[in-house]
Amino acid sequence: MDTAAATGLTFRDATDADVDALVALIESAYRGDSSRTGWTTEADILEGQRTDPEGVLAVIKAPGSRLLTVERDGAVVACCQLEHRGDHAYFGMFAVSPALQGGGLGKVIIAEAERHAQETWGVAEMHMTVISAREDLIAWYERRGYRRTGKMTPFPYGDERFGIPQRDDLQFELLVKPLPQPAQ
């Protein structure tokens, strides 16, 4: 998708009134049969929920955090979390409507998120964590300039707020991308 094709997208901060729509979007992109329409599904490795209203509201309300909501024609079609963490920003809770995946929308959204984080907070890097078993997703991020670090953190087994694992080898890998710095 080029910039011209992206016309019609509106980026804004999520509000309390968006919580239900955002939970539904995130769930549809990652869990259950509806997620299989797109390519970001985690349905084969995790059952149960991906997030809940409390988790989404916590991101909206947290200091130094934004939940960018992306709309097209008045409908919520994507979202992502940005959190200021000192010299870097954290990118998370990224979801694109399964029906719209594969058309370049994700590229436009992540580029806007990176631009926003750099311009707003002056950060030098964007960080994210991805389930290391998601090789296809990691490869997509690598094509966007993210690099694997090999730094792993354990999956929160036993905490069903993050889903019910269907395998015992899940862990998160830190991915990092340097962001362009403005000319001095």
Q: What does the secondary structure layout of this molecule look like, with pairings?
A:
Blueprint: H1 3-6, E1 9-13, H2 19-30, H3 32-35, E2 46-47, H4 53-61, E3 65-72, E4 75-85, E5 88-96, H5 105-121, E6 125-131, H6 135-143, E7 147-154, E8 164-165, E9 171-178
What does this structure look like?
The chain is of the alpha+beta class. It is 30% helix and 33% strand. It has six helices and nine strands. A seven-stranded mixed sheet has the order 1-3-4-5-6-9-7, sandwiched between helices. It has a two-stranded antiparallel ribbon with strand order 2-8. It is globular and about 50 Å long. Mean pLDDT is 90; it is low at 1-5.
Helices, by number, come to 6
Order of helices and strands: HEHHEHEEEHEHEEE
Query: Pairing-aware structural class of the strands and helices?
Result: alpha+beta
Average pLDDT figure: 90
Major beta sheet summary: 7 strands, mixed
Adjacency order of strands in the biggest sheet: 1-3-4-5-6-9-7
* CA(first)-CA(last) distance: 32 Å
Low-confidence stretches: 1-5
